Amino acid sequence: MCCVGGTGSCSDAGKSGACGAMLEEETDQTYENVLAEIQSFELPIEATLRSVYDDQPNAHKKFMEKLDACIRNHDKEIEKMCNFHHQGFVDAITELLKVRTDAEKLKVQVTDTNRRFQDAGKEVIVHTEDIIRCRIQQRNIITVVEKLQLCLPVLEMYSKLKEQMSAKRYYSALKTMEQLENVYFPWVSQYRFCQLMIENLPKLREDIKEISMSDLKDFLESIRKHSDKIGETAMKQAQHQKTFNVSLQKKNKMKFGKNMYINHDKIPEESSETVLKHSLEEEDENEEEVLTVQDLVDFSPVYRCLHIYSVLGDEETFENYYRKQRKKQARLVLQPQSNMHETVDGYRRYFTQIVGFFVVEDHILHVTQGLVTRAYTDELWNMALSKIIAVLRAHSSYCTDPDLVLELKNLIVIFADTLQGYGFPVNRLFDLLFEIRDQYNETLLKKWAGVFRDIFEEDNYSPIPIVNEEEYKIVISKFPFQDPDLEKQSFPKKFPMSQSVPHIYIQVKEFIYASLKFSESLHRSSTEIDDMLRKSTNLLLTRTLSSCLLNLIRKPHIGLTELVQIIINTTHLEQACKYLEDFITNITNISQETVHTTRLYGLSTFKDARHAAEGEIYTKLNQKIDEFVQLADYDWTMSEPDGRASGYLMDLINFLRSIFQVFTHLPTNNSDHAAMSGKVAQTACMSACQHLSTSLMQMLLDSELKQISMGAVQQFNLDVIQCELFASSEPVPGFQGDTLQLAFIDLRQLLDLFMVWDWSTYLADYGQPASKYLRVNPNTALTLLEKVYRGMKDTSKKNNIFAQFRKNDRDKQKLIETVVKQLRSLVNGMSQHA
Hints:
The protein folds into 4 domains: about 35-165; about 200-245 and about 295-425, no CATH class; about 440-595, CATH 1.10.357.30; about 630-790, Up-down Bundle (Methane Monooxygenase Hydroxylase, Chain G, domain 1). Helix content is about 80%, strand content about 0%. It is built from 29 helices and 4 strands. It has helices at about 1-5, 5-40, 45-55, 60-165, 170-185, 190-255, 270-290, 295, 300-310, 315-335, 345-365, 375-395, 400-420, 425-460, 470-480, 485-490, 500-520, 525-555, 560-575, 575-590, 600-630, 645-665, 670-700, 710-730, 745-755, 760-765, 780-795, 800-805, 810-834; strands at about 260, 265, 465, 495. It has a two-stranded antiparallel sheet with strand order 1-2. A hairpin with a 2-residue loop joins strand 1 and strand 2. Helix 9 runs antiparallel to helix 10 and helix 11 runs parallel beside helix 13 (about 400-420). The termini are far apart. Component of the exocyst complex involved in the docking of exocytic vesicles with fusion sites on the plasma membrane. One of its GO terms (biological process) is vesicle tethering involved in exocytosis. Keywords: Exocytosis, Transport.
């Protein structure tokens, strides 16, 4: 009615009521959903409850109301369900109570049956347990057998490993270890004994490495001790092979008809072949006796050690250790003994050790792979070669015995040939031999210098006397002397040279032989050998023999006669040089006409010796003259001369005559000898006269002699006259005219000037080519005049000549002063001009 009575308000109220009803319905629906969610227990309840409380105010109250209503509905449903099933439940209980009695009976029956079954099954259980136990044992036995069958090979291999270790078969032991690790251990790796074995293998490997390294050290020590024996064996093999090849070559030459000549005697082919056959048979026997390096050294330690380290994968360590130790041994081997140069055995031991070292290295190189390489051995050899050359160069310099140097050369050749046979380059060793060859020549020169000195000491320096044909042939066989005139003479006769000449010639040939010995086996051509022989012979002639000759010539005890004989000897030695050249040519088969052939310098050597001997003759003559002149005892104040020449001068002249007679009595059966002796005699005579003249002039002009009397001048004039008589007597033939007298011309003109007192002529003709006193020097005349003037003043008045001066004292003094003044003017003019 209210709605009808007021239209507007009713319509508004209706609207609001409808809206409220709609909201309530929505809220109820929401709560229903919430309750459904709570009942489901599938969603988290927190969010559901939060939605109830977070929605609207008073929502809790409304929810609770809804919840109570829901509970009441459920209670009603439960009550209805219980009422529906209650009768059935009662019936079921009743049924169960009825069955209870039957169940108890059944239980008693079942218990009784179970007891009876238990009693009956006890025996079955016992047998069953026995069967089970047997089955388990059987299964275990089968399992054990299977496992033992699996382990037995491992144990057998390990036992084999132990046996190999005990038997020192280390390489086989390592192989066994590899099989154990790669094949057997994986089968039984789960067992403890296997782990123990696995843990023990590294220790065994280390033991093997140590043992093999110890064996290697013993091997290295062994080869160090046996190196000299190995080297000696190798050098013998090389020497035998070389001898065999040389013998074979000679045999081949004989087959082609190339006959051999020794000392110009022909050897028959049959005998030569027989000798060669025997030599070859001997070489074969020697070669059979020579052992190889494998016979002397057991290399198995090296092989084993190399294989062991190869298996262990440590081959590089082994190679480095081996090479390091061998390098140390090489340095020890290359270190020579301090007295090695004293004996050939010292050099031989040094070479054999080096050869033994490198023979071992070469063997290792060829029988192993990678332990040593060719590059390594070449490097080691180059190092060793430099050291060897330095050692030989140093020690050979101490050698003074040519025989020792020659033996050293032969050892070096064998040493080089041996190592060359093993592939080592040895050219530097042959270059060293050329240095040693020079040293060998020096030692030969020193040795032959002693030989020459001994020959000169033993020589009597007189022509060789021969009394029969046999002695003549002996001398001719030693020295190539050819003189038809001497051959025609009857016995006894004399060779012009002394005994030293054939001896010197023989020794020069011996020197050539000795020098040739060093050139053998040097792999040089005949031309080079010829050149070496000629050069060494030239050194012998120009240095050694020349020095010995010069020393001989200068010896004080060698007199003038000996010097003359030395001159003759050098002439014959000079002529023999061409025979020495022919001798070398016959040895080397190299013609002298070859362009590069060296000539012998003997000609100049012996010419120099002759000149030295001649000069020594002149010097000794002059010394002897000086000795006589020193005996002069003039009384420079005598008033009258003795009337005869001084005694010292006559003795001197007699000595000169006897000396020059030696020259005149020299053998002149050869024109060269005659010319040589005549030239020497003439030169010696002229030199003696000139020296005597000079000595006499110096005696007059001696500054210590202050005054001379005219009597002394006259006495001195008598001595000069004797000198002139000696010169004019031709003491040595061959002088033309008064050539020898010209040696005293200065003295003669000076003495004539004072004896004649011809000062006016001297002063007037001075400087004229035709002057009578051309050889009188104004200074000389002035010096002597002043001495005579002082003698005049001090002479006693009883002297006749001084008395005459006394009577005319003023005129004579004025004359002398005038002459002195003029002479001084001439002297001053000469000095100004000069």
